[in-house]
Structure formats: C-alpha cells, structure tokens
Design a protein that fits this description.
Pfam families: NmrA (PF05368). InterPro entries: Ergot_Alk_Oxidoreductase, NAD(P)-bd_dom_sf, NmrA-like. This is SDR family oxidoreductase. The protein is α/β, with parallel strands linked by helices. Strand 5, helix 5 and strand 6 form a beta-alpha-beta unit. Strands 3-2-1-4-5-6-9 form a seven-stranded parallel sheet, sandwiched between helices. Strands 7-11 form a two-stranded parallel ribbon. Strands 8-10 form a two-stranded antiparallel ribbon. 40% of the residues lie in helices and 16% in strands. The longest helix has 15 residues. The chain is globular and about 55 Å long. The chain has two domains: 131 residues, 3-Layer(aba) Sandwich (Rossmann fold); 101 residues, Alpha-Beta Complex (UDP-galactose 4-epimerase, domain 1). The model has no long low-confidence stretch (mean pLDDT 97). It binds NADP nicotinamide-adenine-dinucleotide phosphate. The site of NADP nicotinamide-adenine-dinucleotide phosphate (NAP) has 25 residues, from helix 1.
Amino acid sequence: MRAVLVTGATGIVGSAVLDHLLARGERVIAAVRNPDGAKLPDGAQARSFDFAMTSAEFDRVLDGVDRVFLMRPPQIEDVQRYLFPFIDAARRNRVRQLVFLSLQGVQFNKRTPHHAVEQHLKASGAPYTFLRPNFFLQNLSSIYAEEIRDRSEIYLPAGRSYTAMIDARDIGRVAAVVLTEPGHVGKAYTLSGEHPLSYHKIATEMTRVLGRPITYARPSEADYLARLAAQGRPADYIAVQKMIYRMVRLNASALPNRVVRKLTGQPATTLREFVHDYRDVWQPEG
Ligand SMILES: NC(=O)c1ccc[n+]([C@@H]2O[C@H](COP(=O)([O-])OP(=O)(O)OC[C@H]3O[C@@H](n4cnc5c(N)ncnc54)[C@H](OP(=O)(O)O)[C@@H]3O)[C@@H](O)[C@H]2O)c1
C-alpha cells in the first residue's frame, strides 16, 4: 500500500490528520524535522524532513508516497523558496493528490503566503484539494493559553465581533476523508464551525467549565499592540496581528457553515465540547 505523507505532523492540525488517517487504516508517514524526538501515535512511521531540504532529498522523502498533506509552517514566510520546490518534487514523483492547509477567505487576500501556494499548485497542474479553515479554537489552548491560565483573561482587540471558529481536530477528520475518498481533487472547502462565537461567549463558557471567572478584556487596538510590544514581540508579528484583528472586527470570519458535517457525516465540534476537552490547559498550576 502506498502511503500518505503528512507535513507538520507534530503540529496542531498535522497530528489530528495523522490520528484520523491511522483510524482509517492508512499507511502514514510523518514528515518531521526530528524523527527521534517526535511524539507520534503508534502506527505512524517517522521520516526526516525539512522544507529547507534539496530537491534530491525531497525525492527520497517522497519515495513510496502517493498523497501528501501539505501545510505551511507559521515560521515560513518565503513559500516560493521553501514550499514551491517541494510541490514541484511531489509533481515529479507523480503524487496523485496534495491536500493543502490554506486559510478561510484566502481567495480575497492575495497578500497571504497561502494564496501564493494555492496559485502555484493550480499553475503547476497539481491534483490539489484546498482546505480553507477559519480561526482554530486551539488558538485558545495554545498561543492564548498562558494569558487565560495566569490572568483569567482573553486579551484580544476583537470588539463585539463574531468568529465561526473551528476545532483543528475537525480539520484532521476532513483531511482524512478527502485523502481517502474519491471526488475531492480540484475542490476548495471553507471549513468553519457551525456557530458564530463572540469572545464574550467564549469567556462565559470557560467560566462555566473552569469554575472561576474568565473575562474578555476587549482592549483597544492601540492597547493590544502596546502589550505585544512590551512582551518583546517582533514588529512583523505585531503588524500581522493588527491586520488580522481589523478583519475580525469587520466580522470577516463570522460566517458559520456545515461543511465538516457534509464531508464527514458528523457535526463540527462545539465550543462547549472544546472547552471541556481542553480544560486542564487553563487550570493554574499547583
Ligand atoms: N491558527 C489559526 O487560527 C489558523 C487558521 C487558519 C489557517 N491556519 C494555518 O495553519 C498553519 C499552521 O498549522 P498548525 O497550527 O497545525 O501548525 P503548528 O502547530 O504551529 O505546527 C507547525 C509544524 O510545522 C513544522 N515545521 C516547522 N518548520 C518546519 C520546516 N522548516 N520544515 C518542516 N516542518 C516544519 C513543525 O515541526 P517541528 O516539530 O519540527 O517543529 C510543526 O509540526 C499555518 O499555515 C496557518 O497560517 C491557522
């Protein structure tokens, strides 16, 4: 049986993709930078991989592979240099499907690296499937977790806006379906949750589950950017956050949908389920 190669396999989405492919009995190769140190589920085979590798090394990574789950690591801005050669190698090795983890609304936002990757996949005639997820619920359990745990506060300049966030585990579920069932090549799927969520609602749900008050601070843009600067965040990170939350305040990510349900036969994970499953992350230590 030929294998599915999963990039970003130690990451939030990639690990969910691994789990769901293995549950479907697929042969799965986790493409990881550190095969000895990577924590992978039983049944996944680790293979050394870095987007900075040479074309010849890509050919070896792709040996025995017929499908690829492709993601752009947040650390990589220059996709032309690091992702395009890998896509070209996948074409050369006759990979029959590349499922790319893109971004909700990417078709309207030509300045994102994801847009460039989508364009390259199309232009090179690759057999692509685009997954365009909304904001991940897991942002609350990763990048924002410390603030929620230590200050009991969600500190984001989202105003009174709504976001139809999606659980990354649902993206993994969808990826496994589109990689193993026919009819998904050449398709693009926007993946949102089934309910638009305000940050006030999220704070209320966390308060209920955690049993202590969690507040949504609703800072102004200026206060938020000043806090990021005080935390020593780099200028380009701060500029991206500014742009992202301007779009969020315009409700550009508010629209829910039922694409997860349509593709997998099960509804998207709810906020309540997510907060319950991840509750330990926000409990103060000791
Ligand atoms: N967060 C959101 O709300 C959201 C919404 C829509 C789309 N997205 C997109 O989703 C993607 C992020 O997915 P994620 O959250 O699952 O990522 P993540 O958890 O940050 O994981 C990043 C993965 O990339 C790997 N990696 C880093 N540098 C690499 C390199 N040079 N070569 C090979 N692998 C490398 C890491 O492996 P190591 O173990 O080796 O470090 C890790 O597995 C981004 O493209 C982001 O724009 C995010």
